[in-house]
Write a structure and sequence with these properties.
Blueprint: E1 2-4, E2 8-16, H1 20-29, E3 35-38, E4 55-56, H2 65-75, H3 82-102, E5 127-128, E6 138-139, H4 145-159, E7 163-166, E8 169-177, E9 182-190, E10 196-206, H5 227-234, E11 239-240, E12 245-252, H6 265-268, E13 272-274, H7 294-308, E14 313-316, H8 322-328, H9 330-338, E15 348-357, E16 360-362, E17 374-376, E18 381-382, H10 394-416, H11 439-455, H12 462-485, H13 490-511, E19 535-536
């Protein structure tokens, strides 16, 4: 990467985001090209670091790709793209094998833990089964899979001579050649000195994660503010299925720790959801009981909390051996212990929380968006894999597989196209002033998240959605005015993105006249026979 005037940077490929998808594609492309990776915080600040459960793939000889496809489509409630599902199910195992070769320390199987297989397998790693899966196919590193994968990938990218890392750089917007309808780079705020770079790139990859921070209660880190989705929309890209935001059924409910996820793998290893009186209730809602897909479990918990007027339900794994609990869930055991809960002897108080954005930037099966030169992968993208609800542990698999699909597409473009670098304009900050107070940003942030939680949550109505749309419009006016008048900072940019993405969520929810998967509207309780994805097209 070279620079000129300290305000313009050039690179072959700009990767925005440093999670599993962004780092994976960077490593693959860096063998032949110069890569720049932007991360708005540290490289490990994103959602990948908090992914506990694991990565789904057909790794057991008694499992099958067909079964993985069927489970994914069942969870997706009829809205999955069959081609996207087949690609992930078919390629997940080889992507996992690549991680094994990189040195990711996945949990090993033990001699006495082979009873779940019909006969002994040569595959040495432990596989667990999560909700919606018909087989044990989730490979994991205890209950900190994302962290282990991320640490391994970060170690590799920091050593690569063709990769330039720019942590603490918040992307402001994409740069577009209007005549060619092509993305030619992006503007980025250096948070260390508040300078703004115009970055010229031949290809740009959005891997910025989801938008669950739009909700008051979420399992996600503070980075999940829908940045890539918002930037793509402003640049003219199509956005799909934003009404489907997955609520994880089991987030720790405790005043000292309100954003810690209790992995679905706890239910996969026998955990039972109970009411305060000890009654198990999931069998009333689904024949799979505690192993039902997340949307069913989240609505069931929400319903039981409303029926009984309780603040939470309880996840009970105390009937399992203490050694199994500590070995499989060391992070959960220690985190709960810090707030005074011994999960080997006590039930875990849990509530649903916003967890995963199933919609995003519409892409083809190679990660290409509707804007030439711009790719989107991972949670930022809508590939069609998840449909109306994500099957557990398919997200990390999607990030890996579509990183490979996008890498192949970009490599082919370099080999077959005549690519020309274009000059990019410097960022113009004239007429802006330092904000004298930041109360508007913090107030609007809080109001937005409460509006989304109250009106666009697990159960919706037309009236609630209309009310949310109006309040979000008012917030947008305030934020846009503030944005154009003041110098930039990360909080303001995140709020700007989140308000826009929240509007896209509401717009999508209003268009879906049915209840399906993660979108449940009391005014439209029935399911359409011929479902279609919700595709929003911006006026550019």
């Amino acid at each position: 990467m070279s620079s000129k005037n300290n305000s313009t940077l050039t690179t072959d490929i700009l990767v925005i985001g440093s999670g599993i998808a962004g780092l994976s594609i960077a490593l693959k492309l860096a063998e032949e090209h110069k890569i720049t990776i932007l991360a708005k915080g540290s490289l490990s600040e994103g959602s990948t670091n908090y992914a506990q459960g694991g990565i789904a793939g057909v790794l057991d000889p008694f499992d099958s790709i067909e079964a993985h496809i069927e489970d994914t489509q069942n969870a997706g409630a009829g809205l999955c793209d069959p081609k996207a599902v087949a690609i992930v199910a078919s390629h997940a195992a080889e992507s996992i094998q690549e991680l094994i070769e990189l040195g990711v320390p996945f949990s090993m199987d033990s001699e006495d833990n082979q009873e779940h297989r019909q006969s002994k397998s040569d595959f040495p790693f432990h596989l667990t089964q999560e909700g919606g899966h018909s087989h044990r196919r989730v490979i994991h590193a205890a209950d900190h899979t994302g962290q282990s994968v991320l640490n391994t990938l970060i170690n590799k990218v920091t050593q690569h001579k063709n990769i330039t890392l720019l942590p603490d750089h918040m992307t402001i917007d994409l740069i577009k050649n209007q005549k060619r309808n092509r993305c030619i780079g992006a503007y980025a705020l250096n948070q260390n000195d508040n300078s703004i770079y115009a970055i010229s790139s031949l290809f740009t990859v959005l891997a910025t994660g989801g938008a669950s921070k739009a909700y008051l209660y979420t399992s996600n880190p503070d980075t999940s503010t829908g940045d890539g989705i918002a930037m793509a929309w402003r640049a003219g890209c199509q956005i799909g299925n934003m009404e489907f935001n997955q609520f994880h059924p089991t987030c720790l409910y405790h005043p000292k720790d309100r954003s810690f996820l209790i992995s679905e793998a706890v239910r996969g290893e026998g955990g039972i959801l109970r009411l305060p009186n000890g009654e198990a209730f999931m069998q009333k809602y689904d024949e799979r009981a505690d192993l039902a897909p997340r949307d069913i479990v989240a609505r069931a918990i929400d319903q039981e909390m409303k029926i009984h007027g309780i603040d939470c339900v309880y996840l009970d794994i105390t009937h399992q051996p203490e050694e199994l609990i500590k070995n499989h869930f060391p992070t959960i055991f220690e985190r709960c212990k810090k707030v005074g809960i011994d999960i080997t002897k006590e039930q875990i108080p849990v509530v649903p929380a916003a967890h995963y954005t199933c919609g995003g930037v519409v892409t083809d099966l190679e990660g290409r968006s509707s804007l030439d030169g711009l790719y989107a992968i991972g949670e930022t993208a809508y590939t069609g894999l998840h449909g109306a609800n994500r099957l557990a542990s398919n997200s990390l698999a999607e990030g890996l597989v579509f990183a490979k699909m996008a890498q192949k597409s970009i490599s082919k473009a370099f080999a077959t196209q005549s690519l020309t670098r274009e000059d990019v304009r410097l960022w113009d900050s004239s007429g802006t002033t330092e904000p004298k107070e930041k109360v508007l940003v913090s107030h609007d942030w809080d109001e937005l998240r409460r509006v989304m939680w109250d009106y666009v949550g697990i159960v919706r109505t037309n009236k609630r959605l209309k009310r949310a749309r109006q309040r979000i419009k008012n917030l947008q006016k305030e934020v846009d005015e503030y944005y154009h008048q003041h110098t930039l900072n990360r909080d303001l940019l995140e709020l700007r993105n989140l308000v826009l993405v929240a509007e896209l969520m509401v717009m999508s929810a209003q268009r879906r006249k049915e209840s399906r998967g993660l979108h449940y509207n009391l005014d439209y309780p029935h399911i359409h026979k011929t479902p279609k994805p919700t595709i929003l097209k911006p006026r550019v």
